[in-house]
Amino acid sequence: NTNKRKLQSLKYNPERKGGDTSKFISTFRKLCYNAEINDIKEQKKYLYKSLPNNHFDYISNEFYNKMKNVNSINELIKEFENIVLEESKLIRNESIVALKHTSTGKYLSSISNLCYTTGSGKQLVFAGGVEPDPNSLWKIQFDTELAIYADTFIRLQHIKSNNFLGIRYQGYQYDNTKGRGIYCYYKSPSTKHTEVICGGEETTWKFNYNKLENYRGYLKSDDIININIKRMYDENGRKNGQVEFLRSHDVQFTIGNDLFQEVVCHNERLGGNDEWCIELIHEVNIF
């Protein structure tokens, strides 16, 4: 049967690789109809075989979970479209992303060669406009193709300056409040939390799903996350620093005549000011 043979060799090509989902679905339906394949189990089998091999784990797990209770070709197609939509939101290594601070609606930004006038004097990081602009675009990098919650270390490279988001160790300083010398990091201009810079020495971050600590899914566009960094050094200069979270808040600092909304790292209780919505702006092309 020619239609069955065509079904067996049918392959789904994601839209990011130039595929056409609507066309694929209509071909799949037509071939099932022409080959007189009405059994839903058989239809599932053919659809499953058409899936691409890359991210096979993600798609096949989703397929298995979502198709269990499907009883008609219409339901099958609907669930397939949902999986394809979710898959298109996956954030891949080297994608271009923006990070929106959820409570103030402003995007994590930096400006090439514009530096703090306090602390390290390095390139500043702030919460900028309420729309993504060239200063708020970051290339996200990790060691695998997809990033898994609580597992994957990430780095964020500012597109315009090529510098990485990070923090900077200051060294040994006398601390008046503690009445002794401590090993410390540069402090932010307004609230004196840990300063966040573009061009840091420590630039490796982790991310958590803000609602579920042990969530194990893949990082996707529009996820709301907490982002943290583990300091290399503690106050005694030992290589065992605390974990601190990326925060912004409605606190500003000035450089010249310009006002900037502060972005810091801290180790206080987490709240709404520690939530960031990651948005996929431009996917890395994989051909």
UniProtKB/TrEMBL annotation:
Domain of life of the source: Eukaryota
Domain MIR: 88-143
Keyword DNA damage in annotation: no
Name this protein carries in UniProt: MIR domain-containing protein
Key words, A-Z: Repeat
Family matches, as InterPro entries: MIR_dom_sf, MIR_motif
Alphabetical list of SUPFAM superfamilies matching this protein: MIR domain (SSF82109)
